Model the fold of this input.
Amino acid sequence: MEDRRVIHEITPLMGKDVLYIADRQKKEFTYPIHNHEVYELNFVEHARGVRRIVGDSSEVIDDYDLVLITSPDLEHVWEQHECTSENIREITIQFDFIMTEDNFFGRNPFLSIRKMMNEARKGLCFPLSAIMKVYSLLDTLSTITDGFYAVQRFLTILYELSKCEGARTLASSSYAKVAVEDDSRRVLKVKNYINKNYRDELRLPVLADIAGMSPSAFSRFFKLHTGRNLSDYIIDIRLGYAARMLVDTARSISEICFACGFNNLSNFNRIFKKKKGSSPSEFRENYRKKRVIV
Done:
């Protein structure tokens, strides 16, 4: 079907536009994987079985899905996959608010939104509880014809989402080209070291020494602080870089394997497929045949 209502007909945003809102009823997803300069909040309902790809994250969604993306380099797409619904609704909101410390949005009332926007550089997926909290606001957003009130409503949506718990990032920091962050100085030092030396062998005693702790104590500390085993974290960082190379370069899979710190090609292929849901060659092919930049 045609769009139910679009506030601004031009996309991506141009000139002095603030919001582009498209509220659509559709039977299938056909748009290719893409990225764009403007930020995007995308809501989908009645689309169980659709595959959502954001960077190197690939997941099959349930009936409701809400994702915020604030990076111009992060590819994303919603693919039909196993969805059989003929009553899919998609609300796409594109916007370009410059939220820096030295402008209006740098003031205290916008602190939680700025933090959320920073996290969304990797793609931020919201839980059902958050979606239900803003559903009524999203549901009628496209019917607001006054631009000021539309922006006011949208800022309220962003604020409510920023106060919700349970949102999770999708793409790995290494794939999304996002600097690592952490509340713990010890953990951050180690993460930065891993990020700079992921191509090399990373030994627990060396990493523990950077943190000023014994190996056993640091392993427990890292798991307690991040919720992840150190070895799993290192693998995910390497896979993120590998996925980015698969998309951005013509290097062979073997070259990428060793360039990212894996010392065994078959092991690399096995881990990649287990973590990403496809082999390295399938991952590259899926991106290359569908990729577009707008």
Summary: Confidence is low (pLDDT under 50) at residues 1-11. The chain has eleven helices and twelve strands. The first strand starts at residue 3 and ends at 6. Residues 50 and 80 are 5 Å apart (CA to CA).
